[in-house]
Amino acid sequence: MMQIERLDHLVLTVRDVVTTCDFYARVLGLEIITFGAGRRAILLETTLGHQKINLHQQGQELTPRAIAPTPGSADLCFIVTTPLSQVMTHLQQCGVAIELGPVPRTGANGPIQSIYIRDPDDNLIELSNPLPSPHLNDLRQNTG
Q1: Bridge-based pairing state of the strands 39-46 and 49-57
Q2: Are 110 and 138 a contacting pair, CB within 8 Å?
Q3: In Å, what is the CA distance from 93 to each residue of 81, 121, 135?
Q4: Residue 110: strand pairing partners
Q5: Which CATH superfamily is domain 1-67 in?
Q6: Widest CA span of the chain, in angstroms?
Q7: Which of these is catalytic: 5, 31, 99, 126?
Q8: pLDDT band at 34 (very low <50, low <70, confident <90, very high)
Q9: CA 110 from chain center: how many Å?
Q10: pLDDT tens for residues 37-94?
């Protein structure tokens, strides 16, 4: 059996790479990097190391690629350490509408409190604070 350690990267197909980079840097405070032959990505630095979100310009996707690369088809959840009340204030200052929340949800490691926004391509972005949680094994037993 294979053992996967972590997610290295995922790809978002976007309408405009520059607009997407601006949003993720200005609104979410993430670092934008350039790599390879001028390719752009959003860098995530976490306790698990570095992960990135590669950006493909719609109509200019690299191969191999998803069968139907489409802007607005992603649903991403980011765990944030900033309290959601402060996140909401920041989003308001940036002119970003909150679509839903705060609402309780279940994340990979247990309960989370989440708000939902849209990026420039209408991808759904969930921003979440962890809540006190049961042990992960208890969570696995209760998901049947």
Answers
A1: antiparallel
A2: no
A3: 19, 20, 37
A4: 107
A5: 2,3-Dihydroxybiphenyl 1,2-Dioxygenase, domain 1 (3.10.180.10)
A6: 48
A7: 126
A8: very high
A9: 18
A10: 899 999 998 777 889 999 999 999 999 999 999 999 999 999 999 999 999 999 999 9
Same fold flag, 1-67 and 74-144 = yes
Q: Is residue 126 flagged as an active site residue?
A: yes
Q: What is the 3-state secondary structure (H, E, C) of 83-139?
A: CHHHHHHHHHHCCCCCCEEEEEEEECCEEEEEEEEECCCCCEEEEEEECCCCCHHHH
Give the model confidence (pLDDT) of 90-134 as tens digits.
Answer: 999 999 999 999 999 999 989 999 999 999 999 999 999 999 866
Q: Which CATH class is domain 74-144?
A: alpha beta
Any idea where the domains of the chain sit in the sequence? 1-67, 74-144
